[in-house]
Description:
Blueprint lengths: L6 H26 L10 H9 L18 H14 L1 H20 L2 H13 L5 E4 L24 E5 L2 E12 L6 E7 L6 H4 E7 L5 E6 L10 E12 L3 E2 L13 H27 L1 E2 L2 E2 L4 H28 L10 H26 L7 H11 L7 H17 L1
Parallel strand pairs: 1-4
Antiparallel strand pairs: 2-3, 3-7, 4-5, 5-8, 6-7, 9-10
Amino acid sequence: MDFSLNEEQRAWQLKARKFADEEIRPLSLQRDAIAAPRETFDWAIIKRGSQLGFRTAAVPKAWGGAGIDYVTQAIVMAELAKADSAISKTFSQCWKWSQLIAEFCSEDQKQRFLVPFMADDSYLLGSASTEPNAGSDKRILVDSDIKTGWRLRAEKHGNEWLLNGEKTFIANGPIAKLFFVNTRSNPNVSIKEGTTVFLVPSDTPGFRVGKVFNKLGWRFYQNAELIFEDARVPEANMVGKVHEGYKMRGGGFSDFELAANAVGVCDDAADTALRFAKREKRGGKPLVDQQVVQLKLNEIFMLTEALRSFVMRVAAETDGKCDRKSPAANVLAMNFASDTIQRVTTLNLDIHGMAGAARIHSHADKLVRDSIIWTHLAGDSVQRMKAVDKLKTEQKQ
């Protein structure tokens, strides 16, 4: 398979690399070290990245975006993540939901929400799914068990819907201006049959942000509670049809997004490990010349390149650039990324530890802390089981 980049893809790669090296990397550790979780976020870097097109890159050209393909998206995410994974995710989080507005929303909704999104460098997007008692279970048992899934109630009152309940660990929670909110509009059936999705602006009456979570990794990336107390949402903000919101899925972008982001983190860990091993000496010779370090470096680079190839293949498949298309590929790539990023960053920290520097080398430590987030993203363990279901279906074809 030919992974060579065309002129446009190469231009996006170089632009992302320049922005990452010159503007993201210098502030990455500084923001990570801030104790208060609300204060780790920096609007200046987001607005600057937006001006360069990174916030709106995936919006179709018909609506003023760049409409970049999946190969380009993978490249940009990896380049930004190489400087800071959480900042990269803040941008790509907007790609996911802006594409859904363009694909699923009415013309009126696009005018009311997509147009201002394009015009405002501080307009971020989010999706409210996870609840204190509904996380990964929304991915399994949806056909038979009405007790699983979302419990945030949506009840119709005239031309409005009243939303009551709570969401938790919501990405961009305290900073987004618009959320896709998954609700239980019929509590007597499964979420597959009783989900309705609404577009909810952050200034909606009855809606507020609760606690902002103080995470070990991805500290720049904001996650918060969202609280709905008779939040009044107009009928015009319903996405699609009533009770059919579960059909509105993101086409596997979440899995692809996480895998591409992990490539950048692994690239950073690999470069950091090799540079450190060449510079530091123990026993009169550089670490890089010691066999145990060479074995670790070999594994770091081997796994990083394997992950890159997997992600690029998935991107090319999604863009229709190759004959093969596996329904399970996105999920498998994310699962492989979850294992790979944690192994690679741990090996990098091990190499620093051999020189007695593990505890003082904050960059290597940060990469490990960020990588742990992958264990909890997108229902990782549940996704592994769902991937097998997809493989069974694929084998029958």
